[in-house]
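Our preliminary data section would be incomplete without showing what the modeling component actually yields. Below, a chain of 337 amino acids is followed by its predicted structure, encoded as tokens that our downstream tools consume directly.
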Amino acid sequence: MKMKKIFAALAAAAMLCGLTACNTDGNSGGSSDSGAGNSGAGNSGNAGDKVYNIGICQLIEHPALDLATKGFQDALKDKLGDNVKFDTQLAQGESTNCATIINSFVSSNVDLIMANATAALAAAASGTDTIPIVGTSITSYEVALNGDEWKGKNITGSSDLAPLAEQEDMILEIFPDAKKVGILYCSAEPNSKYQAQIIGEELTKDGIEFKEYTVADSNEIQAQTQAAVGDNCDVIYIPTDNTFANATETVKNVVVPAKVPVVAGEAGICSGCGTVTLSISYESMGYNAGLMAYEILVNGKKPGDLEIGYSDTTKKYNAEICKELGITIPDGYTAIE
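Predicted structure:
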């Protein structure tokens, strides 16, 4: 009888161990799943155990957008450490590629999409109305998304818009004798067209003539820049424009020999071919977008409840080109390094 009791106790202990092992295996399976796809949201009550998968669609590779992506990633790494993974894909400047990239993110069921530049944001908005989208390097969300229907839904982000009226004031401050301004931009970029329109309105208010010179792609930049110079424009203005940002050397090779100064919408274009700019920090802008993403992912904020973020501006100048053109820069401007 005593032996039977001993065997019964051992059998019960073995069953208990078996049940415990089964429960451990089940939890391990859930934790493993959290590292893929939608990261197993809800498998763990502790956000620190979850690995967030972020899809980043960047329109094209150039310094401004690269810095925005870096800032975005840095913010999430600062907040989440190793618990965040990025799938960063470049669209090579093609809107169709943006759509393909976004569709792949949707199929993978990423936790959040970061859309870097207007075409990337438009593709993301068309691709999903459920996955959170955080944009950056977007001048106007209303222009990029054709109105206000996106508000209150799954989209938020940060803007690279520097006050356009202040940019026009800068033209008057540095070039007070200017009578005609040429506005150069890519017609395929809605935000560039928007900026050109506002700058034109501001120039009209001050009685300054202007003319728009548009390109469909980078192949037309040299010819249109030469056209602006040939029309005796005293100053050329280039807004934040991805096509021109990737071809500043082409512009410089035309305007510098002709002694025609360029006022740029951002520091990247200014450093390549411009004289002055009222610029934001793209890295800081991207970082702010990353903080928004953290609020959405970890703290449960709804993208539609987060206001679009704007960055502080800085007056900057290109010391090399200003010297070559004999332009004196007043106090309050910082040389681009």
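The chain is about 45% helix and 20% strand. The two ends are 90 Å apart (CA to CA). Preliminary results of this kind motivate Aim 1 of the renewal.
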